[in-house]
Amino acid sequence: MSAEQTEQLLRGGIATAVGSWPGTDPREAAATVAGELGDLAHLVELPGRGTGSDMIGRTSALLVDMPFDVSTRGYRLTPRPGAVSRRARDLLRTDLDALEEAWEGTGSAGAGRTVKVQAAGPLTLAAQLELAGGHRVLTDSGAVRDLSESLAEGLARHAAEVAARLGAKVVVQLDEPSSTAVLEGSLPGTSLLDSVRAVPAPEALSILDSVITGVRHPVLVHTCADRPALEFLRGSAAAAIGFDLATIRTADLDDIGELLETGKQLALGLIAVQPPSTPVTWREIAEPAVRLVDRLGVGRRTLADRILITPACGLANAPLTWARRTLSLATETARAFTEDPESLTFD
Q1: 53, 130, 215, 225 — which has fewest CB within 10 A?
Q2: What range defines the domain where residue 105 resides?
Q3: Where is each Cobalamin-independent methionine synthase MetE C-terminal/archaeal domain found (predicted)?
């Protein structure tokens, strides 16, 4: 896919959400997201349903020839599929059926739209999945390679099925909340004497890019880490990078400017995942992004051309009414950025 085609799918001035949603009703969730996010709806995740429906369980359901089960600490690779593998795949199928139903409900408006699917990225998946012996997959370079290849193949198949069933264009989001910990070597091992080594940035980048290039769709890499590894992500093959703007420090501004210079789109998390004590308007949501581009000196047209608007992170633990409100706030903010960003003023 050409850079121009990629930018048409992951373009600035639109609203989307990160992935997870409150509650356990896939049809209600799909109908809400498909209806509210006209430019970039997504296949929602509903962690409230329990094992197999959270980010790692959902992603594990996509793996090819790498079955898994649960352990006392999380998910573990196993020699053969178990009940958890079957449940995770059944939940994914149910969610896709619900989205297809909601998509058809949009009528002709659904034709040619773009939809986003999400999965844990290879670094986070390797950090959170266990080998049969209980160690993190990340501790075995051969297992990491196999996991990355399996993930890329499974995601490619998944994206192809979504595209065929919805008649939509597909972009892929890789969630990498553990990427900073992987690079720093701050993940705990199985005991106090068992440390998990820091993965050098070139090695980690090779792992991440093997999946990005393998899925054959435009990729957005998102991180909810308190200290997003922006310099590292800048070197990736991803078309867009997403992060919570509230986590950004003054020292990160140069990295954000360089992300824009390299041609990447930014998915800025501008809306808190929990409701504020007093009602907010789109203007209050928009202000940090406007001040960011003004401070970087890149011109306000950047808001329309290069910035996607999202909640700060997943909405699984948000009240349902606030989750719905975040979508409308994101949409209103994106509209303001595309209509006349130069006229935006703040006290």
Answers
A1: 225
A2: 3-343
A3: 15-335
- Counting the structural domains of the chain, the total is 1
Residue 273 near residue 313 (C-beta atoms within 8 A): yes
Residues near 206 by beta carbon (within 8 Å), at least 6 away in sequence: none
Cα dihedral sign, 61-235-309-306:
negative
Enumerate helices (H) and strands (E) in the chain, giving the number of each. 13, 12
pLDDT in tens, the chain (347 residues): 556 567 678 899 999 999 999 999 999 999 999 999 999 999 999 999 999 999 999 999 999 999 999 988 889 999 988 888 899 999 999 999 999 999 987 654 556 789 999 999 999 999 999 998 889 999 999 999 999 999 999 999 999 999 999 999 999 999 999 999 999 999 988 766 677 899 999 999 999 999 999 998 999 999 999 999 999 999 999 999 999 999 999 999 999 999 999 999 999 999 999 999 999 999 999 999 999 999 999 999 999 999 999 999 999 999 999 999 999 999 999 999 999 888 888 87
Burial track 14-27 (b if 16+ CB lie within 10 A, e otherwise): bbbbbbbbbbebbe
- Alpha carbons within 13 A on the beta-carbon side of 34: 25
Assign residue 140 the CATH number of its domain. Answer: 3.20.20.210
Tokens linked to 54: 């959270």
User: Angle between the 83-105 and 26-36 helix axes, to the nearest 10 degrees?
Assistant: 40
Q: Can you read off the two tokens belonging to residue 330?
A: 């994101």
Q: DSSP letter string over 89-108?
A: HHHHHHHHHHHHHHHHHTGG
Q: Which residues contact 308 (CB under 8 A, 6 or more apart)?
A: 10, 11, 12, 13, 14, 15, 16, 40, 240, 242, 265, 266, 267, 268, 334
